[in-house]
Specification:
The protein is α/β, with parallel strands linked by helices. 35% of the residues lie in helices and 31% in strands. The chain starts with a helix and ends with a helix.
């Protein structure tokens, strides 16, 4: 009986033991693999700073760029600056400039978006406008990141 109990305990302990590193690797990008980026936005009216940053973070994540914190080492920094200026016909021109910096702080590139919108339409909630801007910018930003 003791042999059976001992064998059962050894088997159970084997199930609970951690896998060796090479066996535990699933091939998926882990915390030390792949790119990560911190996205920030300044100058947007309404909830634009938060909405644009969140939307671009989601878009970049969908193409394999993980979300980083502002203080994370080896992360890329994507800084968006929004400028809203009057335009004719009851409209405003929204310009978003995205600047991408490498982990070393060097500027990797810039991409710019410009769109005319109905005056005041972005003064409160950006909603779908943030998603559309992020979708349009994500591809250009991803091209600035090494692969």
């Amino acid at each position: 009986m003791r042999v059976v109990v001992a064998a059962a305990l050894c088997w159970l302990l084997g199930l609970l033991a951690p896998l060796p590193a090479e066996a535990a690797d699933t091939g998926a990008a882990g915390s030390s693999d792949g790119l990560s980026a911190y996205v920030s936005v300044a100058g947007a009216p309404g909830d634009g700073e938060q909405a644009l940053a969140a939307a671009l973070t989601r878009r970049l994540s969908a193409i394999g760029v993980k979300e980083a914190t502002a203080f994370e080492a080896n992360a890329y920094d994507v800084q968006g600056t929004v400028r809203v200026t009057p335009a004719p016909g009851g409209k405003e021109t929204v310009t978003i400039v995205w600047v991408v910096f490498g982990p070393d702080g060097n500027q990797l590139g810039v991409t710019r978006q410009t769109k005319d919108v109905r005056k005041g339409s972005l003064d409160k909630r950006w909603g779908g406008a943030a998603d559309a801007a992020a979708e349009a910018a994500a591809g250009d930003i991803a091209k600035l990141l090494p692969r």
